Amino acid sequence: MTTQRLLNLDDVSFAYEADAALSHVTMSIDPGQAVAIIGPNGSGKSTMLKGVLGVIPLVAGEMTVFRPKKGRGQSGRIGYLPQDDDIDSEFPITLKQVVMMGRYRRMGWFRFPGADDRQAVADALEVTGLTSRANARFGTLSGGQQQRGLLARALATKPSLLLLDEPFNALDQPNRDALIETLKDLKSNGVGILLTTHDLELAREVCDSILLVNGTQVAFGPLDEVLTLENLQQAFEGVQVEVDEHKVVIPGHSH
Amino acid sequence: MSFIEILSQAFTLPFMWRAAAVLAGLTLAAGLIGVFVNLRGLEFLSDGLTHAVFPGVAAGFMFAGTGGVLYGAIIAAALATVFLTLLSHRKVTSDAAIAIMLTAMFSIGVIIVSRSHNVSASLEQLLFGHLFTVSPTEVIITLIVCAVAFALILATLRGQIFSSFDVRGAQAAGYRPLALALVLNIAIACVVVAASIAVGNLLVLAVIIVPGAIARMWTRGLRGLFVGAVIFAFAAATVGLLASFTISVGADVSVPGGATVAMVFVIGYLISLAVRAIVPDRSVRGEA
Amino acid sequence: MVRNKPYVRDMKTNWIRRAWMSIRCNNKAICVTTAVVAVVGTVAVLSGCSSPAPAPEGLQVVATTTQVSDFTSQVVGTAGTVTGIIAANQTAHSFDPSAKVLLELAHADALVINGVGIEPWLQDAIDASGFHGAVIDASSDIVVVDGDPHVWTSITNAQKMVATIAAGLSKVDPGQAPTFVANAAGYEEKLVALDLWAHADIDQIPVDQRLLVTNHDALAYFVEEFGITFVGSIIPSFDDNAEPSAAEIDALVAKIKESGATAVFSESTISPKLAETIAAEAGVKVYSGEDVLYADTLGPAGSDGATYIQATIHNVRVLVSAWGGTNIPLPAELTP
């Protein structure tokens, strides 16, 4: 596995339509490292992910994203799970075909899906527990199943860097546990993970580092260094915060 | 003459083969592209492009006579496509933009027509199609235009599917939705021009919209969509062509070729709708 | 979610799948392109080689306009089959041939046309049908004025057209030439009688009262032959498909009032509404419905203008009554 740093940001600002949506971010992700982006609503968590993808323009600073290899290479992709979807539930597509979309970039323009593509899809479906619904129309799945389906799509890409926007939201407890296990597996395989979440407990389970934001970067670093009362008050200004030695509870944000 | 005699006579005539060639090219392209028109709800945009072709025809005729009509149509379609694609990515509601462009272009066309007194024949040909009197040159141009449209969409097929389903996901995966939209709109414009020759400008929508709509009724996922649409389009066009010939010759009722083809498309849709209402839709459930 | 056993493929279907995969091409572009090229290529190649169907028996003649078709029928008589392409009350300026028309063209030995550019759609139809007979231009002997194609409206011209048609058909079917010539001569006699009667009927009206306003400029040769003053037409062109602008309508109304015309004459192929509007504005009468003029086409079978002679008689009678005259009776040859 490559030891190339997956992501590096140096005083980066992302902006959309003349408002600075997120500014002054300095952080990095190495292979096998998981970072949780934490902050109140509208603080730019999703913006961070979209900025890394290039969907929201970079207006200041320097960002280095490892170059994905084109073609049939095993490594070198970015997988992305969006938070909400504008997905048409009437769209005539099965779950399996949605997951296969994750393989499209690898397949390029002209290739039919090959055995390894099908295997990746099958693996992703199995990991997210959706194998039994593989041939159902995507729109007939429940909200939670759809999100798991999109997660499967991100996983099928066999990414080196996985970006997840609020991945735990629509999941019930057993599925959450399974996702945590999956993410840990991926980490041990050298995949870098960047996720946003409201749930500090879950972040603590999976991630080594926290990026705390509130329109701008408040702090970045290992979990315990960042999750201080002072930092949290700065990020979640005006909101009551409780800290004990096991977890941090922010009213309205725990599950 | 008996039915069989009529049919066997049909394909000894040069105009029937030319009509068949035009329809073959058109239905292949329209079937494929129509699926995306259906998936992305681009019916009104297609209508806009159809109307936008009109001033191109009028201008083409004024500058270059009947030969210039086709090229005028192509140019107008290209301009309208770019304009619409760019507009639809701004904050202007795309329906409003389409409506404005549609009426503006059409009015320009009417003004051009009123200045010239003998453009009406070419105009009628464009509005109602001239399936049976396509010249060999027109056949070649139409086939080329359809081939371009077909190739464009086939080459970008994966991106188009992704972008139609989940724009942000596609963007995140590295596709460029704006470029894909432009390619799709160009392909639609090509089909509009080709269909204007075959079935006429007024009936282009039938050819573009119906095959995709029918295929969608019967498939659960992507797999049958494209093939189904193309097969239906090709079959319906063949039936329409032969019906037009048979009715015209056998029953001595003068039916225009293009309109008959469009009629068969619509009838096919109604039949499909009726059958679909009766046959239960298993696509909604569906376990592995 | 429980972690399942690793995905196991069903062994039975596995070998089927592998067999299918091995014959299926792995490159979508090549597969699809091959299929498409095969289909389109077959169609295109076959469209190039097609031999015409066996023609029906006897002389097959196709004629374009209703007038020319009438002339041709008179010349051919029972010596062949004459089919008219354009139906009664249908415009000749634009036309979308049906499969039947093209089929008839394919079988035709001769095609009689009016010419002078009134049939711009003709070349396409000829090309599409694979017509390989002789084209007879009925106007080849006529002096065309200002590019106006409505040459048949002058009875003298009509006689020349009949002669040209007879000559043309005689070349196509020399065996029956004597029949054609005889038929043509007989018809031309009737036309001469028609001409004399029309002149006599119209001459009772003083020249300055022979004022004509029509729907489109279709009767120029008629007007010239009978000393009529053409005030103007609603559609200021030979083509019947344009719409007059507000300025043009105003100008026409002014001209009508100035000239002292008392009538606007509508035509069988055009909606009378515009004529009615202008007539109301100018304070004159509109002649439409049964009193419509036969300009571009003849009327349908059984109507007042089903043949050229009948149509001309009708037109003259309507005009003369409108101008305040009394119609003189027809000579014996022209009485049906």
Explain how this protein is built.
- The complex is a heterotrimer of chains A (255), B (288) and C (336).
- Chain A has 255 residues and is an alpha/beta fold.
- Chain A has a domain of 122 residues: Rossmann fold, CATH 3.40.50.
- Helices cover 32% and strands 25% of the residues of chain A.
- Chain A is built from 9 helices and 11 strands.
- Chain A has a 6-stranded mixed beta sheet with strand order 5-6-7-3-8-9, sandwiched between helices. Chain A has a 3-stranded antiparallel beta sheet with strand order 2-1-4, with helices on one face.
- In chain A, strand 10 and strand 11 form a beta hairpin.
- In chain A, helix 2 runs parallel beside helix 5.
- Chain A is globular and about 50 Å long.
- About 2% of the residues of chain A have low confidence.
- With 288 residues, chain B is mainly alpha-helical.
- Chain B has one domain: ABC transporter involved in vitamin B12 uptake, BtuC, CATH 1.10.3470.
- Chain B is built from 12 helices and no strands.
- The termini of chain B are far apart.
- With 336 residues, chain C is of the alpha/beta class.
- Chain C has 2 domains: 138 residues, Rossmann fold (3-Layer(aba) Sandwich), CATH 3.40.50.1980; 131 residues, Nitrogenase molybdenum iron protein domain (Rossmann fold, 3-Layer(aba) Sandwich), CATH 3.40.50.1980.
- In chain C, 45% of the residues lie in helices and 10% in strands.
- Chain C has 11 helices and 8 strands.
- In chain C, helix 3 crosses helix 6, helix 4 packs across helix 5 and helix 7 packs parallel to helix 11.
- The radius of gyration of chain C is 30 Å and the shape is globular.
- Chains in contact: A-B, A-C, B-C.
- At the B-C interface, helix 2, helix 5, helix 6 and helix 11 of B face helix 2, helix 4 and helix 5 of C.
